[in-house]
Design brief:
Number of strands: 12
Strand content: 15-25%
Radius of gyration: 20 Å
Shape: globular
Distance between the termini: 54 Å
Structural class: alpha/beta
Bound molecules: 2-acetamido-2-deoxy-beta-D-glucopyranose
Number of helices: 8
C-alpha cells in the first residue's frame, strides 16, 4: 500500500483499514528494579516457587501451562517465555518442522541442540512465530526470552555474519511485538549498540565472570533492565557489589537453573567497579 493510499485510508475510515491495530506490549524499565528468577530446569510450581522480592519469572514456554502463567499474574507479577530461537532441540514437539537444510553443528555442551542457519529467515520465521503464538501468547505470557541469539560468534557450521544475526534478531523482536509480547535479547554482547532500540530488556549469562557487564552501557542509558545470571560463587560475590554501577540485576543459580537462587541486592555505584586492572573492588581482569 502506498503512503498516499494509507493516509487517505486512515483519513476516511479511521485506522480500521490498516492490517491490524498496533499492539501494546510490556516494556519494563530499569528504574523499577524488578527482581527476577530464571527457572528452566524444572516446571514452575506456584505452590512453592514464588520468591520474596522476585516479580519477573522466566520459565520454559513449551512446557509451561496457562495455569502457571495465570498464577504468576494473580500475584501481580510478570511471566517471560523462554524458547530457543537460534537452535534446534531434538526434544521439542515441533522438531520435525525444521528442514535438514537449516541444521548446523551441535552446540558445545548441549548434545541435543544444533545451531540454525539464521540466514534462512523465510524458513525460520513461521516456525518461530508459531512457537511464540502457541507457547507464549496463547498462555498469556508478557514477553519472550529467545535463546541462542549469537550463533554468528559460534562454530555453527554456517558462514554467519554479524549482519545476518542483526536481521534475524530484529525479526524475532518484531514478531514478538506484533503478538503483543515484549522481547528480551539474550547475550549477544557485541551487538548491543545496534540492538538496544529493538529489545525491551536484556538477559545475560556470566558477564561478571567474563568482565563484560560494561558492554551493557547502551541498555543502561536506555533505562532498560539487564537481568544477569551467574553460575560461579566467586564471580557472583565479586560482581554483585558492583551490579548497580553496570546497571544489571544479578542472581546466582546452578547451571541447571533449578528453583533456588541467590539474590544480589547491592546498590553500589562506586567508579572503582569499572573494569580496570587497578580496581580494588572488581579485582584483576580475566
Ligand atoms: C517505569 O515503569 C513504571 C511502570 O512499571 C512506571 O510507573 C514508571 O513511570 C517508569 N519509570 C520510568 C523512569 O520510565
Ligand atoms: C557461543 O559463543 C559465545 C561467544 O563467544 C560463547 O560465550 C558461548 O559459550 C558459545 N555458545 C556455545 C553453545 O558454544
Amino acid at each position: 500500500m502506498s503512503r498516499l493510499r494509507l493516509a487517505a485510508c486512515a483519513a476516511l475510515l479511521g485506522l480500521a483499514c490498516l492490517p491490524g491495530p498496533a499492539r501494546a506490549w510490556w516494556k519494563p524499565n530499569a528504574t523499577d528494579g524488578l527482581g527476577f528468577n530464571y527457572q528452566l530446569g524444572t516446571d514452575f510450581d506456584p505452590s512453592s516457587n514464588f520468591i520474596d522480592g522476585v516479580q519477573v519469572y522466566f520459565i520454559d514456554g513449551e512446557s509451561a501451562t496457562k495455569a502457571m502463567v495465570d498464577a504468576i499474574h494473580a500475584k501481580g507479577y510478570r511471566a517471560v517465555c523462554y524458547f530457543s530461537a537460534g537452535s534446534y532441540e531434538t526434544y521439542r514437539p515441533d522438531a520435525s518442522s525444521f528442514p535438514a537444510s537449516v541444521l548446523g553443528n551441535v552446540l558445545d555442551g548441549w548434545p541435543n541442540e544444533k545451531w540454525l542457519d539464521i540466514r534462512q529467515i523465510s524458513v525460520l520465521q513461521p516456525i518461530m512465530k508459531k512457537r511464540m503464538q502457541d507457547w507464549c501468547q496463547a498462555k498469556g505470557f508478557d514477553a519472550v526470552d529467545p535463546d541462542n541469539m549469537d550463533g554468528y560468534t559460534n562454530d555453527s557450521g554456517f558462514p554467519l555474519e554479524a549482519k545476518d544475526q542483526l536481521a534475524y534478531n530484529r525479526m524475532i523482536a518484531s514478531v514478538a511485538h506484533g503478538l503483543g509480547l515484549g522481547a528480551g535479547l539474550k547475550n549477544d554482547l557485541d551487538q548491543l549498540n545496534e540492538l538496544t532500540p529493538d529489545f525491551d530488556f536484556f538477559v545475560n549469562e556470566q558477564c561478571f565472570q567474563y568482565n563484560e557487564c560494561d558492554k551493557y552501557a547502551p541498555s543502561q542509558k536506555a533505562n532498560k533492565p539487564v537481568w544477569n545470571v551467574e553460575y560461579k560463587s566467586g564471580a557472583f560475590s565479586r560482581g554483585c557489589r558492583c551490579q548497580s554501577y553496570f546497571g544489571v540485576t544479578s542472581i546466582k543459580k546452578t547451571l541447571k537453573l533449578k528453583p533456588p537462587l541467590t539474590k544480589c541486592s547491592a546498590r553500589i555505584k562506586d567508579k572503582r567497579c569499572r573494569y580496570d586492572p587497578s580496581a580494588t573492588l572488581m579485582g584483576r581482569r580475566g
